[in-house]
Amino acid sequence: MNILGLDNLRKTSLYPRDMERVDARLSVIGKKYAQAPEINLHDRLIAFLDEKQIVYRHLTHTETRTSEESATARGTKLEQGAKALVMFADNKPILVVLSAADKLDNAAFKKQFEIADLRMATPAEVKSISGAEIGAVPPFGNLFNVPVYAEGRLLQNEEIAFNAGELTKSVIMKSADFRALVNPQVGDYALATD
Question: Does 64 share its domain with 92?
Answer without folding.
Answer: yes
